[in-house]
Each structure stands twice: as C-alpha cells, then as structure tokens.
Design goal:
One of its GO terms (molecular function) is ATP hydrolysis activity. By secondary structure, this protein is α/β, with parallel strands linked by helices. The protein contains 20 helices and 23 strands. About 35% of the residues lie in helices and about 25% in strands. It binds adenosine-5'-triphosphate (ATP) and magnesium ion (MG).
Length: about 575
Amino acid sequence: MQVINAIDLEKNFQNTNAIKKISFSIKSGKITGLVGPDGAGKTTLIRMLTGLLTPSFGKLNVLGYQMPNTSSEFLKQIGYMPQKFGLYEDLSVYENLELYGNLQGVENLFLRIEELLDFTSLKKFKDRLAGNLSGGMKQKLGLACALIKKPKLLLLDEPGVGVDPISRIELWQMVQELLKEDIAVVWSTSYLDEADICDEVILLNEGTCLYQGTPQVLREKMKNRVFLVSGEFYKKREALTTILEQDEILDAVLVGSKIRINLQKNKLLKKDIYYSLGKDIKIEPINPIFEDAFVDILNEKTQAHSKLVRNMKNVEPSDKKLIEAKNLTKKFGDFIATDNIDFEIGQGEIFGFLGPNGAGKSTTFKMLCGLLTPTFGTAKVLGEDLYNSKSTIRNSIGYMAQKFSLYGNLNIKDNLEFFSGIYGLKGKKRKEKIEEMIEIFDFKNYLQTNTDSLPLGIKQRLSLACSVMHEPKVLFLDEPTSGVDPITRKEFWTHINSLVKKGVSIMVTTHFMDEAEYCDKIMLIYKGKAIANGTPDELKNLVGSQVSMQETFISLIKQYDKEEK
Ligand SMILES: Nc1ncnc2c1ncn2[C@@H]1O[C@H](COP(=O)(O)OP(=O)(O)OP(=O)(O)O)[C@@H](O)[C@H]1O
Ligand SMILES: [Mg+2]
C-alpha cells in the first residue's frame, strides 16, 4: 500500500534549493533506501516526511495526511531516528528507554524495554550512563528509543553510522521483522551494501532524484564493466595509483592483495598496462555491486593522486618501532576495556584496528595518543610514552578522534587556526597550510558556519584536515569515514594511500569492511582482547576461500563467542 506520495516536491532554504521538484512514492511492507552524497538532500527530505519541515512547493502526502502536519494523531504513527539522536547522557541506558517510553505513552513498557535491550545487546549495560557508551552503542540505544512505540512509518536517518557489521545486520533483521506488520521504512544510508538489499532505492544528488527503483536494475547497467585484477603486484599501492590514472577507469579499489576496477561507459580495457604491474597478472570479469552503479550514475572518477601530499617531503626512514603497544590494559572500575593488547606498527604501514562496538578500540587509541593512562602495560609512539612526553614528539603525531574534538561554536577557519597553532605551525607556513586545507577539502562554502551546524560529512573532513595539516609522521584515525558519503570516503582513502606512500604510519579503525581491505595488517579485537591478526587475505583464509571481509569479521567474532561459552 502506498503510504507516501510526493509530487513536484521542493524545499528551498535561504541560499540553497535543498530539494528540487522531486516526485516519488513509498509503499508499506518495504524498506526504501535513501542514498546520495553529502548535500544530496536526504535529511531535508526525511524531515519533511516527519512533518518537522514545511515543503516550499509541491504536494506531499504522508499516511493520508497532507504535509506539513504536526498533529499528535499523525506524530504518534511516526518513528524517527535523526542523525544526531538526543540521548540523555547523564541518564542510564534503561532510564533513557523509560523516558522515551513514558513520553509516548507505551503500554507494557517494561516488556518492550526488555525486548529492545535484548535485540540491541545492551542488557548488560542497562545501568551504564549513556554518556559512557561507545559510539556504536549510543546509535543502538538511539534506535531502540525510536522503536519504543511500534510505528506505522519508520524514518531512519543513517542509523548505521558507527555501528559494527554484526549489529548492522541485526538492526536490518529487526527492521525486516517490523515489515511483517506492514510498516513502511525509509532508511537513509551511506553503506552501499545496505542500499543493495533494500526493496527500492531513491538516489538523490544535489536535490534531484537520479533514480527510483530496485537496486538490481541499477546494478545491471554495470554488467561487463567490473573486473578483478590479481597476481603478484610489484607495489600494490603504486599499482592502484597507476590504474586510477588510466582514462578508461572510473574507480579502482584494493581488495586485500587484489584490485577491483570499474570501467567508464563505452571504454575498453587497455590490458597491457595491467600486465606490467606485476607477475602472473590476471584480469577477470566479476559481478557488479551497487557501489559500481552509484559511482557510475554520479560520474565521479576516483582521483589517483592526493593534493594533500603534493608539497610533502618523504618521512625519513627510521628503524624505530613507530607505534608499539605492550600488554596494554585499561580498566574502568572492574570493567576491562582493553585487555593485554600487543602490537607493533612499522613505517609506511596501514594498521587496521577492527572490532565490534565497545571492543575497546577508542580506549586503545586514547592510550596511544596520551589521553588516557594505561592501567597496565605500555603504549609508545616514536619510542616515547606520550602521556609523559615532551610536546616536540606530539607535533609529529596526528589524531582524529571518533567524537569531534572540534570547537563547535567556532567556524571552520577558526578551528584550522586553532589546531595549526596547537601543532606548532607558525607564520607563513601556517597561513599557507590553512589555505591549502580550505582548497583540498573544499570548505569555501562553509567558512563562516559554526562547526556545530555543519553536516556530519563536512565535520569529518575538517577533523581530518586538522589532524594532517602539520604533516605528522604517525597518524591515528578513529573511524575517519563514519558519516562520510561513499564518494568522499574514496577521497579520504586516496589521501590515506598517498600519505603511507610518503612513509607516514597509520593506525585506523573503521566499520566499513571494504576499507579494511586497504590495510597492510589487521588486528581484530573483541571484548578488549586481540582475537586475530594478519593481512586481510590471511584473515579471510582463516574463515574460507572466497569469503568477504564482512563474513570474515562476523565469523571470527561468533567463533570466539562459541569457544568462550
Ligand atoms: N569513562 C568510561 N567509563 C566507563 N566505561 C567506559 C568509559 N569509556 C569507555 N568505557 C567502556 O569501555 C568499552 C570500550 O569502549 P570504546 O569506546 O573503547 O569502544 P570502541 O571499540 O571504540 O567502540 P565503537 O566501535 O562503538 O566506537 C565500552 O564498553 C565502553 O562503554
Ligand atoms: Mg570507538
């Protein structure tokens, strides 16, 4: 049954046409995916569907009501999880659910809360303050609050941001369950593997609708244009750059030791170039995924080179261990967040630190960066313990925190000024670097906006800019691409790849398993412990041949749970 119908819908703000005359319909019993890059208009559209925003022109009917409508009768039927869900940080998990439940007059609230705590695996943490939850656990609690009263229309604005692969699948399954009750779900997402399994997708770009239909139809358009290049590359990252330099290539990504390529429309593959990149090179056609179609429809060629490193010198070779954790342990009361972790990271390496929500990743990052003291063991960077070290070492390190350390009431330029000062940039160099960051990350339209009101993707770009502008030798990236659109994610990885080619050492965490494939080494941590480690291919081989990183991640975690029981 059709529950939403929009005809020539428009939304204009002071200086922007956020939504430009779009028409679409949404049915119940289905999940409709809303995809598109930053600024496409996804959040504006969702807000109009909730009745919070008034359309400028056109017609919008939601659940039989003409929009805008904010009657309680209408609102009762809507479940809405905004990007920034308003949790009460000083209330416990349970109290948050209780509060939302009471506000909405939910009957048998106790049972509903138990159900939701089970689903989100938050039962064990029900008494923990929401403010002390890991990033992903907060998202899950937000969703649980939005579901407290079973709605007729569920609007989810990027619910998967910062959520681990296992929880995202669980989230998906729970929403699938809701469909049986004939609920309509609108799911905005930057995870294109999620878009691929939606019943329908609406693809927005700059306020216009580029496509509405099934993901399959869109994917089919890429048939015979996607290939896997395998073999023994002489230098994997150089090979990737060479491939991306080719005119006929639209996109190329590392998949462990292989490279997946995506050909421009009506172009032929110039195979000789690929054969020169290594020994025993093979090129085989493979099935397209939604991401291929997405890149194609937006016609965004992935850049081979990052402007970030154009003036950067190579990091001088060093035989020191760049990053080293030994028996690293952190306890919060009786709870062990990081449990006896050991690893070393060499120069010019990308070390992927993966794990489910609450595994202890951010806690470990913070100890390495000298923001938390270890309860036991040591964390050293460039041979020094940062907690006690002099500020000179700190200038060689960049840290992009999971939660913004930006100053929300300052604008972009002020933040760049402030962080360049902290990292010891001075005079002409400082001025040049700030201008360079504005150009590279395309901040010019946002310079006067307070960072608090920036879209999530832009905030992440600013955080990245602030952590790299002083040309650090060692870079810590705690979920750099969370909340970043698929095209910008590719840009981020072009930067990261170029930095390691210059000799920078990078420790990174992500919940996007395709990004894990870019790492040289991966450590999988769970419940504070390291449960597996190796190259992406080695990890996959632990689980089976032909498995994806996502399947590997899930399988290794589940296996650990089984053995622990
Ligand atoms: N100050 C604190 N007091 C109590 N518990 C804490 C504190 N900081 C973190 N924790 C707990 O430590 C565990 C690990 O948190 P951490 O933020 O390191 O997880 P994470 O692996 O980064 O997760 P995510 O993927 O969700 O970001 C979580 O259970 C979290 O609730
Ligand atoms: Mg974290």
